[in-house]
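Figure 2 data, in text form.
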Amino acid sequence: MGNEMTRDWTNAELAARAVADPTTAGADLVAIAAARPTARTTATPPAAPRTPRPTSTPTPTCGVTLPDGVSSALVCSSPAATVTLPGFTTPDYLGSEIWYGFKSPTGNLACAWYDGGTVLCNAVVLETSLPVDPRSAGVEGEISCARGLWVGDQGAGVMCAGDVRVVDVIPMTPTVPVLEYGQIAVSTDYPYPWTSSDAPHDPVACQSSENGVICWNTQTHHGMKLSRQTAVYW
């Protein structure tokens, strides 16, 4: 009997004992249940670490603070493709000289290459106020800085007094070429009509778009944007 208490019974043997001696059935069923392998539990694998989303690399602003609506991808790089525009003759009261510049497809905006490597732009209709240019404080005729901006070797700012008269005539001159939307023209592709110096000047690029005209110095990246609703410079 002592050997029966210590031996390990197989399930088949325990079942046979239960049939031969029913008094042992209860204890044997417990033994059978204990002998059964426990159900396997599937371990939940640890959650994979989340891959952080790549953060967008800010586009460099090339040392200048750009206003809203001006792309650093445009202003901080040299234009890849440009167009060459023909010259036009100014009216007699401006000397009947050959000038270079353009007007927008709507005819509301006009720009001209000017003395000293400067590009001047104005608007026939401007539905906003021009910013105050501290560099022009005290300039005679400043009150007539009404509709235009300039950009060149010295930065960018508001046109004053006599500067405006050249670009004023562009929208009214049929021979002035149109800079179509998406096209870019660069000032150094043209001779300046009355330059005060033979020294080279920084190239100024101008792009026409449905949102206005943007002109910028391709070396210093200063520039301006002009449209019917916008007049800003940086």
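Caption note: The first strand starts at residue 88 and ends at 89.
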